[in-house]
Amino acid sequence: MGGVGENMDELERALLEIEAMLGIFCHHFSDESHEAEFVVTTPEAFERARTVIECRDDCTESFDVPRLDVEAIIHCNGGSSGCARLRIGLPPGYPSFVNAEVTVLSVPNNYSRRQLDELSTTLRSLAKELLGSEVLMEIMNKCRVAMEDWDRVLDTDKECRGDGCVNRTESIGRRWIWVHHITNSTRLKQIVSEAQTLKLGGFLKGGYPGVVVVEGNANSCDSFVSWIKGNKSRPGGFGRNWGHHVRGETIIEKRQLPECFEELEDMGKLGALCKEFGVEEEFREFILQHR
């Protein structure tokens, strides 16, 4: 990090950036804004820093460069799709020596926890990549673009069936996944945890072969499948061929499997439960591979 003089220069850059953002957006949160809102959440530190910068040439007292925090609300589609709320911290030395610190406080209610985590990772990575530059507007724009992309996905996830369309945000789905084996105890726990987090019911059968069937909100099923496919690139992932074994996908009118996701010990138990809950034909078609 730079010396005291350099840090004062960085503080002045940070103050000018914040003042520009306050000029572009509202100084306080308002229900009438349909684009974005911006506010300083450390007003005392902000005003003190501004006073010191204004008289820096005449000021003789020591001054510890403060951390400045702001919050931003980014509306998507004029506010009709909800909003994301960000907290952005500007530590001493920002922007040249230290990157901004981004926290996603909330996202629209129809977004999953995984989308919130993904957005957090994306914005934090952006802040690190842009070290040396003012980033507040870039972070807010990146957030807005991510939300618009998600909304487009939700719009295209409407499946027409018969004489009407089924909205995947409201419809119920079931996914059947087969893999050569799942024997690692950590992997088994991860699968159970992910299904429970997404509020999906169904079963996991470990061993040789491994079978996963999940049931619940169709978008949550899709998120689970995306997680399974993506997990192959993570440390301790499921292997390069994992994503090739999503064997069955159905949209259904009502849930049939237990809402509590359960781990089973053998295929016979899985088959018996599938028969008990009325999904034996799908089990035979997608897992046993015969009708």
Provide key terms for this protein:
single chain, 291 residues, five-stranded mixed beta sheet, four-stranded antiparallel beta sheet, 8 helices
Molecular structure report:
The structure is a single chain. The longest helix has 21 residues, at 4-24. The protein has eight helices and eleven strands. Strand 8 (201-205) and strand 9 (210-217) form a beta hairpin. It has 291 residues and is an alpha+beta fold. It is elongated, with a radius of gyration of 25 Å. A five-stranded mixed β-sheet has the order 10-7-9-8-11, with helices on both faces.
Number of helices: 8
Report the order of strands and helices.
Answer: HEHEEEHHEEEHEEHEEHH
Count of DSSP strands: 11
Question: Gyration radius, to the nearest Å?
Answer: 25 Å
Sheet with the most strands: spatial strand order: 10-7-9-8-11
Average residue pLDDT: 82
Q: What is the compact description of this entry?
A:
The protein is α+β, with helices and mostly antiparallel strands. The chain contains eight helices and eleven strands.
Topology:
Layout: H1 4-24, E1 36-40, H2 43-54, E2 68-75, E3 83-90, E4 101-106, H3 113-129, H4 136-156, E5 158-161, E6 164-167, E7 172-179, H5 185-197, E8 201-205, E9 210-217, H6 218-230, E10 246-252, E11 262-264, H7 267-276, H8 280-286
Parallel strand pairs: 8-11
Antiparallel strand pairs: 1-2, 2-3, 3-4, 5-6, 7-9, 7-10, 8-9
Helix pairs in contact: 1-2, 3-4, 7-8
